[in-house]
Amino acid sequence: RAPRASPPDGGWGWMIVAGCFLVTICTRAVTRCISIFFVEFQAYFGQDYARTAWIHSIVDCATMLCAPLGSLISNHVSCQVGIMLGGLLASTGLILSSFATSLEHLYLSLGVLTGLGFALCYSPAIAMVGKYFNRRKALAYGIAMSGSGIGTFILAPVVQLLIEQFSWRGALLILGGFVLNLCVCGALMRPIALKEDRKTAPEFLEQDYVPEAQKQDLRQMSICSPLIKAWSHECLCYCSWKEYDFLLMPGFMVLAVSVLFMAYGCSPLFVYLVPYALTVGVSHHQAAFLMSILGVIDIVGNITFGWLTDRRCLKKYRHFCYLFAVGMDGLCCLFLPVLQNFPLLVPFSFTFGYFDGAYVTLIPVVTADVVGTSSLSSALGVVYFLHAIPYLVSPPVAGWLVDTTGSYTASFLLCGFSMIFSSTLLCFARLAKKIKRTHLQSLTNDANTKQHIWTNGAIAYSVTGELDQKDVEFLAADTNSYSNR
After folding, report:
1. Which InterPro entries does the entry link to (predicted)?
2. Tens digits of per-residue pLDDT, 251-272?
3. Residue 453 pairs with which residues in a beta bridge?
4. What are the extents of the domains in the chain?
């Protein structure tokens, strides 16, 4: 098919949104529900908080650590193949986990294998939504990412019921069959060709070492498809660099650092909310219901924030909406240690769930605004890769703090301050960028008042008073640049 000039903003794109919606249910919602198994694993294997928390940490870490691998397969093979393969691996990991005889067994099967399968599905599915939508991108992402909340709302009580009826082994076996639906989601991901994806490098085509036949082929197909043609070593190096050149963008660097602190703060809450609720006297069903509330309000945050940030009045301020949501989740974590009963924990689940859904929706939107649509798949792979180490470290660290101090206060305070720091860092970076842009505009306007170009090419300057040294240097540099044209 001929490449489209712009995303369709509809049509089959809504099927892509539906597929991504199911992917987020089968990946992120299932990962969140692993926290319901926490008490069961701890009681069955007789281990402390820190060792048991490694299971959830490894799942999250493997999902994010291998996200670039999912992007690589999606870019160079097929998004459909990557998601189907990921579904098979994740299902196999959950089924093998139902036969676990030790925590180490769960580390490998439920942690590494299932996490790898989720990684091959998650970032490619999200990137496909960005390929099909532009004008309504935030709304499309809001609907797609709401699968995490809806899945948590439905699966949390269902998983608790399955554990009571079939034990944790039977519950994992049933989840393994459920996750096979990722293969169906993969089949929906029809690829789309956009003109901006087929842009070639003019400077590369000018090189003498590229044969004319290869130049012609290069103009007809994507430059970064090494499976189509055996390009020269120079071409492959150029492709690899162009695919990840966004890594040196200052805006992406700041976003990446803020993501590290945000990921550290958000992960322990999903692991320890149910155990914390049980320690303050909440029943098992009420604790699972707290996760359900968090999940369903997560949906509201996904869709409403996605719709609001697509409005003309807020479209320019997506970064600030994102950092506001992250900061509010941090404040919620700071107040959690004083909430000691079920009626107080319910408002917490409402508030934290809403803003969690809000910033999760805006992560791909903000990333696309920073790097552009053509690099979105690779950039999302890197962004989710940056979640890996915080996701791996934060739950065991929080568990160690619980084992050491005998309470959850230190763990939740550390999470809250980490998320607030992430929000503050991004806020200061945006303000510094705005101040720098304003300063450059003022310099440009000042230069325009001093420079007048005559029709014969001469340059005259109208100056009131004497020139200082900076003005002399500016005029000299400007005159030299004009004479070199």
Report:
1. MFS (IPR011701), MFS_dom (IPR020846), MFS_trans_sf (IPR036259), Proton-linked_MCT (IPR050327)
2. 788 888 888 898 888 888 888 8
3. 459
4. 12-194+248-432
